[in-house]
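User: Could you check the structure of this?
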Amino acid sequence: MTRRTVRIAMNGVTGRMGYRQHLLRSVLAIREEGGHDLGGGEVLWPEPVLVGRREHALKEIAERHGLTEWSTDLDAVLADDTISLYFDAQVTSARVEAIKKAIAAGKHIYTEKPTAADLAGALDLARLARSAGIKHGVVQDKIFLPGLLKLKRLIDGGFFGQILSVRGEFGYWVFEGDWQDPQRPSWNYRAEDGGGITVDMFPHWEYVLHELFGRVTTVQAHITTHIPERWDERGKPYAATADDAAYGIFQLEGGVVAQINSAWSVRVNRDELVEFQVDGTHGSAVAGLRRCRVQHRSATPKPVWNPDLPVTESFRDQWQEVPDNGEFGNGFKAQWELFLRHLALDEPYRWDLLAGARGVQLAELGLRSSAEGRRFDVPELSL
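Assistant: Sure, the predicted structure tokens are below.
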């Protein structure tokens, strides 16, 4: 087998997501498998060059995984002509400047979302990338999860008949930090640092809805901060200036209505941390990260509302599990492999910086909707 090496500047791998999902479970996992098979006797071999601000953390990660290249000097890394791809998993506030530098250096771009703090910045990145003639992609991992892949299988197979509505529930209780350590970094709850659940999750909901059910055409949202004070990594209290809950209603092209609640201030009474219920004329489904259950119209019971008698049936037991019918790998790794094939073989890849801008647009309009108490149309974007 012939090995084709792709050297990747990976910025932000000292963070939880950048390390666990992108470095460990994606790029290093591909290396552990001997590289990604491109066909024709050729294997793509990703070679990460770690980039970040904390020298000791970069060194520790590199030594832990037998990597030899790391740097706190982004400019020097981007000046290296042997590096062809720049990946960004930094905090949002640092992303635009770094990606602009990488585009100017002629690097291809693969980045986490949101791609920018506002729509103007996101569109600017997309235009710069197009003008530079580079390849670019944005992480849209949820559509590669087993539960949503099963849901896509149902949609493609016509299981639902006419799809009527989508109901989504996402979230969990993130501890405030005063008596139990929080599960998320404190910057997530400071608007001045790019935090907030709307800018974090609405980009996810945009591509999930767009890919599975249709383009979002209107948005109406109520966005709030339920927990006004939290404690940071040093145990110091701070004002939570960013929103921790977002309640959105989205109308989709074709008439489907979607309602999605997102909160870091909700205790979980679901089977999974995110679940989508899809109702159609011929059947319904509930999909999470891994599971998907269905109820066809031929097997739908006839509940009768009677508040005077206790319920004797288990509604959850009336649903049927959708089988795996195949192996599902890590969703982040699956998308990495598709983007690397796009780089190496020029295979089609549609999740680009313009797709990333749609997510920023939806978050921006959601925040505006909540502030003004209005429903907004979502214009179709173009460059």
